[in-house]
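Take a look at this chain, tokens included, and explain the fold to me:
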Amino acid sequence: MSKREQPELLTVAYIAIGAETTLRGAESTISQENLDQTIECYGGELGVIDEAVSHALMLDTVADGLDHNCVFSYDVAEEFGARLVARSLAVYSPLESPIDVLRDTLLDADYDRDDVLSGIEAWRARK
């Protein structure tokens, strides 16, 4: 299999949807000060979305080796974007390891654990 160079556009779109939805919902769940602090870490709201979608190639590369049992865009990409932003908001700063968010998202979507871990290793090996 050739090395993937670009993410799928649907992956990018659904990560952005999940990230934006979580960002909008956070306005009612955390203080404005903490929300502003986290957003500022990314240089603004667009920076939050840009950071989330910057991991689309990682998602698609890991997903290339998986047997899909769900609609990847809805069940994984959108959920990944939502979780990435939610975890960032929980610590008021950017996350250091988005691959952990992807692992948890895939496992919660009932992907095979060994396949997920193998895909993650493949992603790490290409870096």
Q: What stands out?
A: The chain has seven helices and no strands. The radius of gyration is 14 Å.
